[in-house]
Amino acid sequence: MNQNPKNELSAYNFEEHWNKAYQKTPTTSLGWYEENPTPSLELIEACNLPNDAVIFNAGAGSTSLINRLLEKGYNNIIVNDISETALEILKNDLTIDKASNVQFIIDDLTNSTALLKLKNIDLWHDRAVLHFFTENYQQEAYFKLINKVIKLNGYIILAQFNLKGAVKCCGLDIRNYNEEMLQKGLGENFKLLKSFDYTYTQPSENTREYVYTLFKRIH
Ligand SMILES: C[S@@+](CC[C@H](N)C(=O)[O-])C[C@H]1O[C@@H](n2cnc3c(N)ncnc32)[C@H](O)[C@@H]1O
User: What CATH topology corresponds to 8-217?
Assistant: First the structure.
Protein backbone atom coordinates (compact mmCIF):
# COMPACT_ATOMS: atom_id res chain seq x y z
CA MET A 1 0.00 0.00 0.00
CA ASN A 2 2.56 2.62 1.20
CA GLN A 3 0.35 5.58 0.38
CA ASN A 4 0.81 7.66 3.53
CA PRO A 5 0.63 11.34 2.74
CA LYS A 6 3.83 13.14 3.71
CA ASN A 7 2.38 15.02 6.68
CA GLU A 8 3.51 15.52 10.25
CA LEU A 9 1.60 12.50 11.53
CA SER A 10 3.05 10.03 9.05
CA ALA A 11 6.54 11.22 10.09
CA TYR A 12 5.81 10.27 13.71
CA ASN A 13 7.40 6.95 14.62
CA PHE A 14 4.48 4.99 16.07
CA GLU A 15 6.48 1.78 16.10
CA GLU A 16 9.05 3.35 18.41
CA HIS A 17 6.32 4.94 20.55
CA TRP A 18 4.68 1.58 21.20
CA ASN A 19 7.94 -0.35 21.63
CA LYS A 20 8.93 2.14 24.35
CA ALA A 21 5.53 1.86 26.03
CA TYR A 22 5.92 -1.91 26.34
CA GLN A 23 9.59 -1.66 27.42
CA LYS A 24 8.77 0.89 30.12
CA THR A 25 5.75 -0.74 31.81
CA PRO A 26 5.11 -4.36 32.80
CA THR A 27 2.08 -5.91 31.12
CA THR A 28 -0.05 -6.08 34.27
CA SER A 29 0.40 -2.33 34.92
CA LEU A 30 -0.47 -1.14 31.41
CA GLY A 31 -3.48 1.20 31.25
CA TRP A 32 -5.29 -1.28 28.99
CA TYR A 33 -4.35 -4.56 30.76
CA GLU A 34 -7.20 -6.99 31.39
CA GLU A 35 -6.73 -9.99 33.64
CA ASN A 36 -10.02 -11.35 32.32
CA PRO A 37 -11.03 -10.04 28.88
CA THR A 38 -14.63 -11.01 29.63
CA PRO A 39 -16.57 -8.80 27.16
CA SER A 40 -14.34 -9.93 24.27
CA LEU A 41 -14.62 -13.60 25.24
CA GLU A 42 -18.41 -13.38 25.52
CA LEU A 43 -18.71 -11.87 22.05
CA ILE A 44 -16.29 -14.42 20.59
CA GLU A 45 -18.24 -17.31 22.15
CA ALA A 46 -21.47 -15.81 20.75
CA CYS A 47 -20.07 -16.33 17.23
CA ASN A 48 -20.12 -20.11 17.79
CA LEU A 49 -17.03 -20.71 15.70
CA PRO A 50 -15.28 -24.08 15.36
CA ASN A 51 -11.93 -24.50 17.14
CA ASP A 52 -9.98 -24.20 13.89
CA ALA A 53 -11.61 -20.92 12.85
CA VAL A 54 -9.08 -18.24 11.88
CA ILE A 55 -9.15 -15.65 14.65
CA PHE A 56 -7.21 -12.46 13.93
CA ASN A 57 -6.31 -10.14 16.80
CA ALA A 58 -5.43 -6.69 15.43
CA GLY A 59 -2.98 -4.68 17.58
CA ALA A 60 -2.94 -7.49 20.13
CA GLY A 61 -0.15 -6.01 22.26
CA SER A 62 0.56 -8.34 25.18
CA THR A 63 -3.12 -9.18 25.74
CA SER A 64 -4.20 -12.05 27.99
CA LEU A 65 -6.95 -12.84 25.44
CA ILE A 66 -4.69 -15.16 23.45
CA ASN A 67 -4.01 -17.48 26.39
CA ARG A 68 -7.73 -17.52 27.21
CA LEU A 69 -8.56 -18.47 23.59
CA LEU A 70 -5.94 -21.24 23.58
CA GLU A 71 -7.38 -22.57 26.85
CA LYS A 72 -10.79 -22.70 25.19
CA GLY A 73 -9.34 -24.82 22.38
CA TYR A 74 -9.05 -22.30 19.53
CA ASN A 75 -6.03 -23.40 17.52
CA ASN A 76 -5.74 -21.09 14.51
CA ILE A 77 -4.95 -17.66 15.91
CA ILE A 78 -3.13 -14.81 14.18
CA VAL A 79 -1.84 -11.95 16.30
CA ASN A 80 -0.63 -8.68 14.89
CA ASP A 81 0.98 -5.55 16.27
CA ILE A 82 3.14 -2.68 15.05
CA SER A 83 5.35 -3.28 18.10
CA GLU A 84 7.81 -6.14 17.98
CA THR A 85 8.41 -5.70 21.73
CA ALA A 86 4.71 -6.26 22.48
CA LEU A 87 4.56 -9.46 20.45
CA GLU A 88 7.77 -10.77 22.05
CA ILE A 89 6.16 -10.30 25.49
CA LEU A 90 2.97 -11.97 24.29
CA LYS A 91 4.94 -14.89 22.83
CA ASN A 92 6.91 -15.38 26.07
CA ASP A 93 3.68 -15.37 28.11
CA LEU A 94 2.02 -18.06 26.00
CA THR A 95 1.33 -21.53 27.31
CA ILE A 96 4.38 -23.31 25.83
CA ASP A 97 2.74 -26.36 24.25
CA LYS A 98 0.14 -24.24 22.46
CA ALA A 99 2.55 -21.72 20.91
CA SER A 100 2.41 -23.49 17.53
CA ASN A 101 -1.29 -22.54 17.27
CA VAL A 102 -0.44 -18.86 17.03
CA GLN A 103 1.04 -16.95 14.10
CA PHE A 104 2.71 -13.57 14.77
CA ILE A 105 2.66 -10.73 12.24
CA ILE A 106 4.44 -7.45 12.91
CA ASP A 107 2.83 -4.92 10.59
CA ASP A 108 1.11 -1.52 10.52
CA LEU A 109 -2.67 -1.84 10.20
CA THR A 110 -2.78 1.53 8.42
CA ASN A 111 0.02 0.84 5.98
CA SER A 112 0.13 -2.94 5.64
CA THR A 113 2.36 -5.26 3.69
CA ALA A 114 2.27 -8.76 5.27
CA LEU A 115 -1.34 -8.34 6.40
CA LEU A 116 -2.49 -7.78 2.83
CA LYS A 117 -1.62 -11.42 2.08
CA LEU A 118 -4.15 -12.73 4.62
CA LYS A 119 -7.52 -14.08 3.49
CA ASN A 120 -10.56 -15.98 4.75
CA ILE A 121 -10.40 -14.66 8.30
CA ASP A 122 -13.37 -15.89 10.35
CA LEU A 123 -13.13 -13.35 13.14
CA TRP A 124 -11.38 -9.98 13.43
CA HIS A 125 -10.95 -8.70 16.99
CA ASP A 126 -9.76 -5.18 17.84
CA ARG A 127 -9.82 -3.75 21.33
CA ALA A 128 -8.40 -0.25 21.72
CA VAL A 129 -6.49 -0.02 18.44
CA LEU A 130 -8.68 1.60 15.76
CA HIS A 131 -9.34 4.59 18.04
CA PHE A 132 -5.67 5.63 17.67
CA PHE A 133 -6.17 6.16 13.94
CA THR A 134 -7.17 9.81 14.01
CA GLU A 135 -6.53 10.60 10.34
CA ASN A 136 -8.93 9.74 7.53
CA TYR A 137 -6.26 7.97 5.47
CA GLN A 138 -5.49 5.69 8.45
CA GLN A 139 -9.15 4.80 9.00
CA GLU A 140 -9.67 4.21 5.29
CA ALA A 141 -6.66 1.87 5.09
CA TYR A 142 -7.83 -0.01 8.19
CA PHE A 143 -11.39 -0.59 6.95
CA LYS A 144 -10.14 -1.46 3.47
CA LEU A 145 -7.91 -4.12 5.02
CA ILE A 146 -10.86 -5.63 6.92
CA ASN A 147 -12.91 -5.75 3.73
CA LYS A 148 -10.05 -7.51 1.94
CA VAL A 149 -9.26 -10.22 4.47
CA ILE A 150 -12.52 -11.13 6.23
CA LYS A 151 -14.59 -13.93 4.71
CA LEU A 152 -18.28 -13.82 3.89
CA ASN A 153 -20.24 -14.57 7.10
CA GLY A 154 -17.13 -13.70 9.10
CA TYR A 155 -17.36 -11.63 12.29
CA ILE A 156 -15.81 -8.35 13.44
CA ILE A 157 -15.47 -7.28 17.07
CA LEU A 158 -14.56 -3.63 17.55
CA ALA A 159 -14.17 -2.28 21.10
CA GLN A 160 -13.11 1.38 21.25
CA PHE A 161 -13.38 4.37 23.62
CA ASN A 162 -16.98 5.58 23.37
CA LEU A 163 -18.28 9.13 23.01
CA LYS A 164 -18.23 9.61 26.80
CA GLY A 165 -14.72 8.15 27.00
CA ALA A 166 -11.21 9.53 27.39
CA VAL A 167 -9.72 11.55 24.52
CA LYS A 168 -6.15 10.31 24.95
CA CYS A 169 -4.44 7.00 25.67
CA CYS A 170 -0.76 6.21 26.12
CA GLY A 171 0.08 9.86 25.36
CA LEU A 172 -1.66 9.78 21.96
CA ASP A 173 -4.84 11.48 20.75
CA ILE A 174 -7.68 9.13 19.99
CA ARG A 175 -10.99 9.26 18.12
CA ASN A 176 -14.10 8.38 20.12
CA TYR A 177 -16.70 6.07 18.57
CA ASN A 178 -20.29 4.93 18.79
CA GLU A 179 -21.84 1.99 16.97
CA GLU A 180 -23.12 4.14 14.07
CA MET A 181 -19.63 5.50 13.39
CA LEU A 182 -18.20 1.97 13.39
CA GLN A 183 -20.97 0.79 11.04
CA LYS A 184 -20.20 3.71 8.72
CA GLY A 185 -16.50 2.83 8.67
CA LEU A 186 -17.13 -0.84 7.91
CA GLY A 187 -19.73 -0.10 5.24
CA GLU A 188 -22.82 -1.90 4.02
CA ASN A 189 -21.09 -5.29 3.70
CA PHE A 190 -21.40 -5.59 7.49
CA LYS A 191 -24.43 -5.91 9.75
CA LEU A 192 -24.42 -4.92 13.42
CA LEU A 193 -25.46 -7.89 15.60
CA LYS A 194 -24.70 -6.58 19.08
CA SER A 195 -23.49 -3.46 20.83
CA PHE A 196 -23.03 -2.37 24.45
CA ASP A 197 -21.19 0.20 26.51
CA TYR A 198 -18.67 -1.15 29.01
CA THR A 199 -16.74 0.49 31.82
CA TYR A 200 -13.23 -0.93 32.07
CA THR A 201 -11.26 -0.52 35.31
CA GLN A 202 -7.54 0.06 34.77
CA PRO A 203 -4.83 -1.43 37.06
CA SER A 204 -4.64 2.10 38.59
CA GLU A 205 -8.39 1.78 39.47
CA ASN A 206 -9.31 4.60 37.07
CA THR A 207 -12.04 3.77 34.59
CA ARG A 208 -12.32 3.98 30.79
CA GLU A 209 -15.59 3.94 28.84
CA TYR A 210 -15.73 1.60 25.84
CA VAL A 211 -18.29 0.68 23.20
CA TYR A 212 -18.21 -3.01 22.23
CA THR A 213 -19.68 -4.03 18.87
CA LEU A 214 -20.13 -7.30 17.00
CA PHE A 215 -20.69 -7.19 13.22
CA LYS A 216 -21.19 -9.92 10.64
CA ARG A 217 -20.15 -9.78 7.00
CA ILE A 218 -23.34 -10.25 4.98
CA HIS A 219 -22.14 -9.37 1.42
C1 LIG B 1 -4.02 0.29 23.89
S2 LIG B 1 -3.11 -1.01 23.21
C3 LIG B 1 -4.31 -2.34 23.16
C4 LIG B 1 -3.64 -3.70 23.07
C5 LIG B 1 -4.61 -4.89 23.04
N6 LIG B 1 -5.52 -4.80 21.92
C7 LIG B 1 -5.35 -5.02 24.33
O8 LIG B 1 -6.59 -4.84 24.35
O9 LIG B 1 -4.71 -5.31 25.35
C10 LIG B 1 -3.00 -0.55 21.50
C11 LIG B 1 -2.17 -1.51 20.69
O12 LIG B 1 -2.25 -1.17 19.31
C13 LIG B 1 -0.97 -1.34 18.73
N14 LIG B 1 -0.93 -0.48 17.53
C15 LIG B 1 -0.96 0.86 17.49
N16 LIG B 1 -0.93 1.30 16.22
C17 LIG B 1 -0.87 0.21 15.43
C18 LIG B 1 -0.81 0.01 14.04
N19 LIG B 1 -0.80 1.05 13.18
N20 LIG B 1 -0.78 -1.25 13.55
C21 LIG B 1 -0.78 -2.31 14.42
N22 LIG B 1 -0.83 -2.18 15.75
C23 LIG B 1 -0.89 -0.94 16.26
C24 LIG B 1 -0.02 -0.91 19.84
O25 LIG B 1 1.29 -1.35 19.67
C26 LIG B 1 -0.70 -1.51 21.06
O27 LIG B 1 -0.27 -2.81 21.31
Answer: Rossmann fold (3.40.50)
